Amino acid sequence: MSEETNPEPPIEGDGSPHSFGDGVHIRNYGWLLRTTGWCALVATVLGVIVAPGLRGYATDASVVAWDRAAMVLSYAAAILACAGAVTGATELAFSRRADTASGALIVSGTSLVVVLLVVAVIHARRMPDSPAPWQLSVGIALVASSVASTAAWRAMAGPHTRALSIVVSAFALAALLRVGSWELARAASERGGPVFDVASRTVATVAVVIEAVGQAVSAAWIGSRARTGLVASSLAAVLAFAVTWGAAWGGHTDAPWWASALHAVLGESPILPAPFALSAAQSFLGASAVFLAAAALVQFAQPAALTSAFALALLSRGAFDAPIRAIAIVAAAVWGFCAAFDQRLLWAALGSTAATASTAATRERASHSPPSPSSPS
Q1: DSSP string of 220-270, one letter each residue
Q2: Is 286 inside any structural domain?
């Protein structure tokens, strides 16, 4: 009887039907992906929570300093995300996995998002007090959603990227629904009548629900990464509830300044049209996205392509009208697509999870085993 042997993982570029191709070496870009994820996380915390929350509660010099720090980190995160997205699209273009239609859409869409991001930055520098034209915001949201949904659909083939594909698809759908709600709200303001207003708010409500589904899948993936992931995801949920409670408390007159600052940032959502009866849920999602992104990034046993992609997708929040969020979801989707067919990355992801679970099981058995009898003296 012949002994059964475990199959060896296929080698990249060996010509086997399961190899991704000669051009993709995802693990070589781990430093770029992790740096992008952490930079985007810190930029989001400073630019969305800290700097806006300090207005009216700190000195002008402090507010200006935090605003500058947030701006510098936002530019750095945008540059790193552009580099990651373009690098991933380039690797994808030279691989044999993407068919002609999907590969062309992903590569050309990534390039177009980068160009629109540059246009948005130039507009912001020339006219800082003027918002970007709505055509630019809608255009970058539509292109980013198309790239993200296409890449996510193709990445469904990888067992280790299936959860990431669901998250990216959910956020892409939420972004498309938000664009639809804006158009309905614009039609309501131009033509009048309650029908368009109710329709716009209904679509916005569905977008919030779909974003919540995407975050729930992310939390489930992080929590399944053995004990470290379970602790990180649980802590993220507790902190998000605490921040949401603080934002709700900040609406009262006797609230401390930090609660009032949180209420100004999270309690009064700037997203229009407003959803029906989900203002508290929207505040919770704003906080949980940041904490879940941090929980994903601290999963150091997992490949950087997966953890950073989860973090960037969470920070995008399905609001791709903001250029930095659009390039974040594009980078997450492109590298998720590349990671789906990287067999070395598949074995690294499965191996790290199995090793962590085996170590935890060994410690559990050791803690319940009876002590060995001592030898007689």
Answers
A1: HHHHTSHHHHHHHHHHHHHHHHHHHHHHHHTTSTT--HHHHHHIIIIIS--
A2: yes
Residue 43 pLDDT: 92
Cα–Cα nearest to 72, from 33, 113, 114, 42: 42
CB atoms within 10 A of CB 74: 21
**Residues whose CB falls within 8 Å of the CB of residue 335, separated by 6 or more in sequence, listed in order:** 26, 33, 84, 88, 305, 308, 309
First and final C-alpha spacing in the chain: 50
Has residue 232 got a pLDDT over 70? yes
User: Concatenated DSSP letters for 2-69?
Assistant: PPP-PPPPPPTTSS-TT---TT--GGGGHHHHHHHHHHHHHHHIIIIIIHHHHTTTS-HHHHHHHHHH
Interaxial angle between packed helices 194-223 and 304-316, expressed in degrees from 0 to 180 and rounded to the nearest 10:
160
Which range marks the domain in which residue 41 is found?
Answer: 27-355
279 part of a folded domain: yes
* Tens digit of each residue's pLDDT (9 = 90 or more) over 269-291: 555 677 887 777 888 898 999 99
CA dihedral 310, 315, 316, 321 (to 10 degrees): -170
Query: Hey, what are 259's tokens?
Result: 């609660």
pLDDT at 31: 82
One-letter amino acid identity for 282? Q
Is 270 domain-assigned? Answer: yes
Eight-state DSSP code of residue 273: S
Q: How far is CA 197 from CA 102, 184, 204, 210, 215, in A?
A: 36, 7, 11, 20, 27
Bond from prior residue into 270 cis (ω within 30 degrees of 0): no
Number of domains in the chain: 1
Q: Examine residue 360 and state whether it is found in any structural domain, yes or no.
A: no
